[in-house]
Design brief:
Distance between the termini: 75 Å
Order of helices and strands: HEEEEHHHEHEHE
Structural class: alpha+beta
Number of strands: 7
Number of helices: 6
Strand content: 15-25%
Largest sheet: 5 strands, mixed
Radius of gyration: 24 Å
Shape: globular
């Protein structure tokens, strides 16, 4: 006669545990959905003409070549695309709005410093980089040998583990300004997440790469 209430209590406890487990699973699923919704994605593109007497800098890495990219800053077409993608993912417009090529303050500017300023502005919105996939379109020079250095540079500038950065190099099969060897183009896709969810050492501060004074508009560090 005593066993029946005990069995009922055990069944009730089991039911409660099952309900609690189900509630926990639902809560975890809800949290995961919230995290997914917090992910932001940005697309950036840029193109620059090739010209004599200029350095060719891609992703913060100088690539030996008889021509370089023409532009108001150092014309790092890849960092410009990445910066554009970072700003776009945060809903902050584009690189031209933040660093206009009509402003003499940016003449010859190191594009890595401009990216650092953009990342500071993104951080002010509570966001941080989580990943990058990018493509450089160039007929010449061939970039296969330079991809590891470019990847490492981008990872350092974004404060990401190298495995979260991907660099691809493509030709234009002889078509258009890129295919004719008159220009280099780049595109980038960046994902941002809330800063508390980001992993890695974090982006470099403006001026940290070269020790130079940060460009105008850079937050004080």
């Amino acid at each position: 006669e005593v066993a029946e209430p005990a069995a009922g209590a055990a069944a009730s406890a089991a039911g409660s545990a099952s309900a609690a487990s189900a509630a926990g699973s639902a809560s975890a699923a809800s949290a995961a959905a919230t995290d997914l919704h917090a992910v932001r994605v940005g697309l950036g593109t840029d193109v620059h003409r090739l010209a004599p007497g200029r350095r060719l800098v891609l992703g913060g890495v100088e690539v030996p070549f008889e021509l370089g990219l023409l532009g108001h800053s150092d014309a790092d077409v890849l960092l410009h695309a990445v910066t554009d993608a970072v700003l776009g993912a945060a809903g902050l417009g584009d690189i031209g709005e933040h660093f206009p090529d009509t402003d003499p303050a940016y003449a010859g500017a190191d594009s890595a410093r401009l990216l650092a300023v953009a990342l500071e502005r993104v951080a002010a919105r509570g966001l941080a980089p989580a990943g990058l996939d990018c493509v450089v379109h160039a007929e010449r020079p061939k970039l296969k040998a330079h991809k590891p250095a470019i990847r490492a540079s981008l990872a350092r500038l974004l404060g990401l583990p190298p495995e979260r950065v991907n660099v691809k190099a493509k030709t234009a099969e002889g078509l258009g300004p890129v295919g004719e060897g008159r220009a280099i183009e780049a595109s980038a896709v960046v994902t941002l997440v809330p800063r508390g969810q980001a992993t890695g050492p974090g982006p470099l501060a403006p001026g940290a790469r070269t020790g130079d004074t940060p460009p105008p508009g850079a937050p004080s560090t």
